[in-house]
Every structure is written in structure tokens, then in C-alpha cells.
Amino acid sequence: MTTTTHLVRTRRFLPLFVTQLLGAFNDNLYKNAMVLYVVYSVYNSEAAEARFSAIASGLFILPFFLLSALAGQLADMRDKARIIRIVKACEIAIMIVGGAGLVMAWAGFEVQQIAIPLMLAALLAMGVHSTFFGPIKYAILPQHLHEGEVLAGTGLVEAGTYIAILAGTILAGWIPVEVAAAGVVVTALIGYLSGRQVPPAPPVIEAQSVDYNIWRSSITLIRNTTKHRQVFMAIIAISFFWTVGTVLFIQFPPLAKNVLSASKEVASLFLVMFSVGIAIGSMSINHLLKGTVSARWSPASVIAMGVAITAFHFVCKAWTPHPGGALMDVSQFLAEPLAIPLLLCLLCIAVAGGMFVVPLYAFLTTVVDKSETARTIAANNIVNSGAMVLGSLLAVGLSAAGVATVDQLLLGAAMCTVSAYLGWLLYRAECAAA
């Protein structure tokens, strides 16, 4: 029996895995249902659509920047399983609010004045939910898993997350928005039940006071992380990766509608290809490294990602708009001669991205002491979220400056060269510490 097969049959891993899957699924079902509905049914301007997509991404990310230090402290100093139960209970209330906003938008009732603000408020609250759950999903692994299982467990969580993103994204693009509203509430209820099955994970250090000053605690957390050179380099490299990812995800819906003349189902298909690719890359790197945590393949992986983004840009530039201005459905889109090359470019971007980022997350949970893992993940989330907010602002700024959505893709390609350099520095540090 392989390590992967063994893990999914154990209670010390399976309930956490299922809870994480449901949370990622719900995040993406809600967020994409909201963004796709607003982009395709409310606004009729490429700039307005890109701006709304960026605002939605920024609101979801903002709590990670502000509250990750508090989340990391609580996860290291309190029972992680208990925090999971509290967080998943809050998700039910959040999704009731968000579902109400979706239904109001669908019914055409006070869309601009009430429905959209309500949906964005729920998205912000889901960001808070994910901020407090985020440090736990990785920090709990070295506490519940054996040493040789951590990379496999991290790869499973990462691959499972993107499979869940895939499922949520598919449904968001294909089901009616009013059905999505009911689905997010039901999923939150199931997630709460699975979260209650996670075994206890008490703190492995003596009780300490929690610093509720978010600015001071955030600065202290990041400063402490710099003591571990490999961990700090991994955090910086991951941050650049997610900046690239943020720029790409912001661009997909308006790019599909305005550049490719494609429907929201095709925009959903783009996100599907991205999610499948990340899952493939996550599992592939575990096989290549044979369970060893190493950044050996990271520089080459992210260079390949940059090449694939550049190829995606040129395919989009060569795309011939659909005659008559009508939006193509999936079958019409796939009949286009450049459709398959475009989807293959997306798949390659994501596979390379998964191969790059998974070992770096494993670094964060294996290099430091188990008593510090949640705070290390929290420090990573702070820096990552700051980078992603920067990516959102860059996308908004470029759109405001009149830079075409398709040309903004080159920003992501350029950032990959920086990530490759950081990955190389990390590998050097890893070799020096060996």
C-alpha cells in the first residue's frame, strides 16, 4: 500500500482532508458564481469587469494580510481541532448571508445598492474564515503524520484543494446562480460535520499569551521567520508565485468574455484546466522527489511556467473574434482552431506551478520545530497575501491605464523569472544546510 493510499484511510488525515476539500470547494463555488454572474449579467464594460474581479480578489485576500499573525498564534497555542469546529460553524452563517446576496442579484432586487455589497461582505468574511483555517491545514500535518508522510500529506492536501477548486469552479459556471446560493449553505453544513471528526491536536508548547495587536504581532512573526533562511526564502518564492496566480485569475473572466468572445462556461473551463494542472503538478513532484522535501526542481518548474504564460499570451493575441459578437458556448469554443493550443498552454502553466509550489509548502512544516509550524504558515500567509494584494492593485492599475487584458499576461511571465531566481537561492541554501 502506498503512503498516499494509506493516508486517505486513516482518521488522523481523512477528516481534515475532507474538511479542507469542502472549504476550498465552497470558497470557489461562491466566489466564481458571484464574479461570473456580475461580469456576465450586471456589467458591460471590460474595465468595469476587470475592476470588479480585482476588488473581489482583493477583499478575499485582505484578511490574510491583517489577521494571519493572530490565526497563527491561536493555532500553535490552542487545540487546532477545536479551532476548526469554531471556524466551520461560522462558515454556515457567512454562506447564509452570501447566498441571500446571490438570490437578490438573481431576482434583480436592489442589485447595486444591496445585493453586490452583501455578496462582497460575505466574500470578505470567507477570507477571514480561510485565514484562521489556513495555518491549521498544514501545521496539523506534522503533528498527526509520521516524518515520511508529511510530503505525501502536503501533496494530497494541495492536489485535493485544487480538485475541490475544480469542482466548485465547474459548478459555478454551469448551474444557475440561485442553485449555487443553496449549494454554498449545504456545503458549509457538511463541512462543519466533517470538521467535528478531526482528532484532537493540542498545542505542543506551554500556554502563552496571545498578542492581539495585529500590526505588532505580524511584524514579530515575520521577523522571527527570517531566522530560518530556508523558510524565509520559501515564503518569498511562494509569494511571487501567488502574485502571478492572482493576476491570472483576475484576468480569466474578462479575457474570456472580451478577447475570446466566450461564455461564462468557457471562463469556468479555463479555471478548471488551471485546477487540474495544479493537481497533476502537485502529485508529480511528490513522485519525482520520492518523498524528500527539496527545492531541486523549483527553478526549472517556474521557468517552464513563465514560458507557458508567454505562449498563452501569443495564442490569445492570434485569436480571431467570433463573428457577430455573440458569446460562444463550450462546444463552439472547442471547435475553434486555436482552442486546444490555448487550453494546453493553461494546463502547462498550472502543472509547472504545482511542481514549483508544493515542495516549498513542505519546507514550511518540516524545517521548523512542530511548535512553530502554524505561526510559520501564518507568516507565509501574511507575506503571500501582501503580494497578492499587490497583484490585484497592479491588475487594477494596468486596466485603468488602458493596458489590454491580454497584454497584462506578460506581467505574470516576467514575475516567473524572479520566482525562479528565488527558487535557485532556496536550493543553494538547502544544499548548504545539508
From TrEMBL:
Listed transmembrane segments: 50-71, 92-109, 115-136, 148-167, 173-193, 231-254, 266-289, 301-320, 340-364, 385-403, 409-427
Keywords, sorted A to Z: Cell membrane, Membrane, Transmembrane, Transmembrane helix, Transport
Topology of this chain in the membrane: Multi-pass membrane protein
GO cellular component, one term: plasma membrane
Gene Ontology MF: a single term: transmembrane transporter activity
Pfam family, one: MFS_1
Database matches in Gene3D superfamilies: MFS general substrate transporter like domains
Compartments in which it is found: Cell membrane
InterPro entries: MFS, MFS_trans_sf
Name the record gives this protein: Putative MFS family arabinose efflux permease
Species for this entry: Novosphingobium hassiacum
Lineage: Bacteria, Pseudomonadati, Pseudomonadota, Alphaproteobacteria, Sphingomonadales
